[in-house]
User: What shape does this take?
Amino acid sequence: MEKRFNITVYFVEPAQYTLDLIKNVHDKIGAKYRFLYPKSTASTERKNAVRTQSFWSQIGLLYKDFRNSYFIIFNGFYKRELWFFILLNLFSRKKVQIGLESDTLLNIPINPFKKAFKRLVLSFLFKREFIYGLPGGFGSHTNLFKHYGMRDDKIVILPMVIDNSKFHKKKHNSIFTFLFVGRFIELKNINLILQSFLKLQQKKVQINLVGEGELFNELSTRYNNSNIHFLGKKYGDDLVNTYSNADCVILASKSEQWGLVVNEAMASGLPVICSKFVGANYDLIENKNTGLIFDPEKEGDLTKKMLEMYRDKVQFGNFSNNAYSLMHNYWNYNLYKQQLFSLVEKIRNA
Assistant: This one.
C-alpha cells in the first residue's frame, strides 16, 4: 500500500500515545510521519520536528512533503502548516488529499465573535473537496464535522486507541481501591473526587491518586487521611501496576476532549466512573456496561455512583469483564487500521 499510496502524518508532538500509534500502525504500513514540536531535546524526536527548523527550511520541508505525498493526515485545524498545505492545494494543479484527525468535541462558542470566526474557518475548511474528517469517536467528535458542513461520505472514524497490550487484568484487592490518574489542575476536578470519597464513610475503601501539577501540594496537605494516598507521577510498568492494583478509575473532569485514562483503565479490566463532560463516554461507556457516568454539577451524584460501584458486586464484575473485552477485542489498533484502510479505498475510488 505504501508504495502506491504515499501517506504523511503530521502530529503535534511525540507524546507516548503518538509514539505507540506510530509503532503499531504507521510504521507497519510504511507511512511517513513528522512532529510539529519536539517534546525534548532527544535527537530521535528533534529530527522530525518541523518547528525546530529555520523558516525557509520549514517551507522547503512542507513543500517536499506536499509533492511526495498523495494523502496527508494532519492533527488539528488551526496550525499554520495545515493552512500552507491548503494554499498549495488551492493554487496548485496537483491536489493532495488531506485528512483532519481530531479528538475535538462539538462545542459552539457563546461569544458571538468567536462563534462567527469558528464557523467561518471550519465551514471553509470542511467544504473543500480534498478534505476528509477523521474524528476520534462516533459521537460528538463526528458531529463537529457535520455541524460545520462536511458531508457524511467524507467522514471516517480513526478511533482514539492506545497500546492495550501494555495493560493486564487487575489483581484481587482486599480493600476496594478507587484510582485517579492525571494532572493536578483545576480542570480535573480532583477536589470533588476527594470530597465525594470522604462522604462514602466505608472502612474497606481507599483511593490512590497518581500524577503531579500545580495543585498537588495543596491537595496532599489538605486531605491528610490514611485512606487517601498521593502517589506522585508514575511511568511505564509502575503505572501499569498501579492500574492492576486498583478496582475502579474516576475521571471527574469539568471538560475533557477524550480522556485516554479511560482507555488505560478499561484495558486493565477496570470499570470507570466518568464525568458527563468526558469525550470518551459515547464510545466506551454509554450503553456498553463498562462503567457509570455522573454529573459533576449535581450535588452528591459522584458519591452515589461510587457507592453503587462498591456495593453492587455483580454489576462491578460485569463492568470489569465488558471493559476488558471492549478494549482488547474491539477498540484497538486493528480497528484503527481497518478504518484507515477503508479511508484509503474511499479516496482511491472517489
About this structure: The longest helix spans residues 313-329. The chain has a mean pLDDT of 93. Residues 238 and 244 are 10 Å apart (CA to CA).
